[in-house]
Amino acid sequence: MPMIDPARTLLLVIDVQVRLMPAIAEGAGVLANTGRLAAAAKLLDVPILFTEQNAGGLGPTVPELAPEPGMAFPKMSFGAVQAPGFLERLPADRDLVVAGCEAHICVLQTALGLLEAGRRVWVVRDAVGSRRIENRDAALVRMAAHGAEIVTTEMVAFEWLGTVRHRRFREVVRLIK
């Protein structure tokens, strides 16, 4: 897989919701890194789509990420690809950088569905979480075995930048430090 090109990617944030995040192991780090990715995406004009699993039960996306109207896709299926209209929300020319929860359920099933649909997928290791670490780790291994690239927040940010001469370099680096 080539480098992560900001002109060809969409940041997909899966189910980072108010009633779920307190139960996520290392949830503060997952949330912080997801926030860094979202901020970098906004600075670099990378589109973002959020999913919300059973929002009536798990609540909306956490206020720290505050999706703009129309940026949150409601779903009841664990894998977003199985939700009616989801694939149509993804521009056909965009690869997916994926963050969110839970790694072994909704992130896994969404990533596998995207891969099956022929999409390129990068899963951000330090921006995905599960209630139990072993579930997250097993999901990352399984996603990689099926073709997802496993990356980190910094890898994504610096590949989106591409060069120290990028006009947004200093702003993005401030997000990482």
Give a verbal description of the structure:
This is Isochorismatase. InterPro entries: Isochorismatase-like_dom, Isochorismatase-like_sf, Isochorismatase_domain. The chain is α/β, with parallel strands linked by helices. Helix content is 39%, strand content 20%. The chain has one domain (6-176): Isochorismatase-like (Rossmann fold), CATH 3.40.50.850. It has seven helices and six strands, in the order βαβαβαβαβαβαα. Strand 4 (95-101), helix 4 and strand 5 (121-129) form a beta-alpha-beta unit. The longest helix has 17 residues, at 27-43. It is globular. The protein starts with 8 loop residues before the first strand and ends with a helix. The mean pLDDT is 96.
Level-1 CATH class name: Alpha Beta
Spatial separation of the terminal alpha carbons: 27 Å
Helix content: 25-40%
Strand percentage, roughly?
A: 15-25%
State the shape.
globular
Whole-number mean pLDDT? 96
Uncertain runs with pLDDT below 50, 5 residues or more? none
How many helix segments?
Answer: 7
Q: Considering the protein shown, what is the CATH homologous superfamily?
A: Isochorismatase-like
**Number of strand segments:** 6
Radius of gyration: 15 Å
CATH architecture: 3-Layer(aba) Sandwich
How many structurally independent domains?
Answer: 1
- In which order are the strands of the major sheet placed? 3-2-1-4-5-6
| CATH fold description | Rossmann fold
Which structural category do the helix and sheet elements fall into?
Answer: alpha/beta
